[in-house]
């Protein structure tokens, strides 16, 4: 999930729509609401956040260092001001990157992946047996051949790969794929997506790489 903070609801809704087309869940906040949320959110909710995008906010309203106290997810400023002084102030405030608008959603996703990779939090891809799972929106490969997947199934596979070695619950998968504030989608939809994903992987691999245990969740295995 990506968190977007901007004074203008129209902007947060616009970015949410664009990210949704890429299969990436979002949550939009006004600056005042965001400060209260990030200081009180549960650790499990914050672990679902892939990055924070900070747009037009009153100076001082958002503290990247406050975010850093709770999570290591990248903080990226979206700037409409093309001046060196403004860019330097944003970096001095503690953001990881400054992106000048307009910018394509895929470029933002690529920058997020690059920042996480530099921090050794996320590699460009993860290999599980003969499967190579990318973290930048590309379809996975099995024995070097792409396996086209619907965006939700692809994002679930990416999330499982990013948590390789750990078991994740259905709630954690749902929060990462749909966002922690999506009340219009039932959490059980995760089971349907994973069932379809497992079938496709079994057909290509000859075995099921997703281990599931009731009440405990899912994990990728060789």
Automatic annotation (TrEMBL):
<feature type="DNA-binding region" description="OmpR/PhoB-type">
    <location>
        <begin position="123"/>
        <end position="222"/>
    </location>
</feature>
<dbReference type="InterPro" id="IPR001789">
    <property type="entry name" value="Sig_transdc_resp-reg_receiver"/>
</dbReference>
<dbReference type="InterPro" id="IPR011006">
    <property type="entry name" value="CheY-like_superfamily"/>
</dbReference>
<keyword id="KW-0238">DNA-binding</keyword>
<keyword id="KW-0805">Transcription regulation</keyword>
<feature type="domain" description="Response regulatory">
    <location>
        <begin position="1"/>
        <end position="116"/>
    </location>
</feature>
<keyword id="KW-0804">Transcription</keyword>
<dbReference type="InterPro" id="IPR036388">
    <property type="entry name" value="WH-like_DNA-bd_sf"/>
</dbReference>
<dbReference type="InterPro" id="IPR016032">
    <property type="entry name" value="Sig_transdc_resp-reg_C-effctor"/>
</dbReference>
<dbReference type="Pfam" id="PF00486">
    <property type="entry name" value="Trans_reg_C"/>
</dbReference>
<protein>
    <submittedName>
        <fullName>Response regulator transcription factor</fullName>
    </submittedName>
</protein>
<dbReference type="InterPro" id="IPR039420">
    <property type="entry name" value="WalR-like"/>
</dbReference>
<feature type="domain" description="OmpR/PhoB-type">
    <location>
        <begin position="123"/>
        <end position="222"/>
    </location>
</feature>
<dbReference type="InterPro" id="IPR001867">
    <property type="entry name" value="OmpR/PhoB-type_DNA-bd"/>
</dbReference>
<dbReference type="Pfam" id="PF00072">
    <property type="entry name" value="Response_reg"/>
</dbReference>
């Amino acid at each position: 999930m990506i968190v977007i903070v901007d004074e203008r609801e129209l902007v947060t809704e616009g970015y949410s729509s664009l990210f949704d087309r890429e299969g990436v869940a979002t949550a939009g906040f006004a600056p005042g609401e965001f400060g209260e949320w990030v200081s009180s959110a549960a650790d499990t909710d914050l672990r679902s956040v892939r990055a924070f995008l900070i747009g037009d906010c009153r100076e001082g309203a958002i503290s990247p260092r406050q975010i850093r106290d709770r999570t290591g997810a990248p903080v990226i400023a979206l700037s409409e001001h093309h001046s060196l002084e403004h860019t330097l102030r944003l970096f001095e405030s503690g953001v990881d990157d400054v992106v000048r608008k307009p910018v394509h959603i895929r470029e933002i996703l690529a920058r997020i992946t690059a920042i996480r990779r530099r921090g050794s939090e996320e590699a460009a891809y993860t290999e599980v047996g003969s499967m190579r799972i990318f973290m930048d929106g590309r379809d996975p490969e099995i024995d070097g051949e792409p396996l086209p997947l619907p965006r939700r199934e692809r994002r679930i596979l990416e999330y499982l790969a990013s948590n390789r070695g750990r078991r994740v619950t259905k709630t954690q998968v749902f929060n990462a794929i749909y966002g922690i504030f999506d009340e219009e989608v039932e959490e059980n939809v995760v089971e349907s997506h994973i069932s379809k994903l497992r079938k496709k992987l079994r057909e290509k691999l000859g075995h099921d790489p997703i281990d599931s245990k009731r009440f405990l969740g899912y994990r990728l295995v060789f």
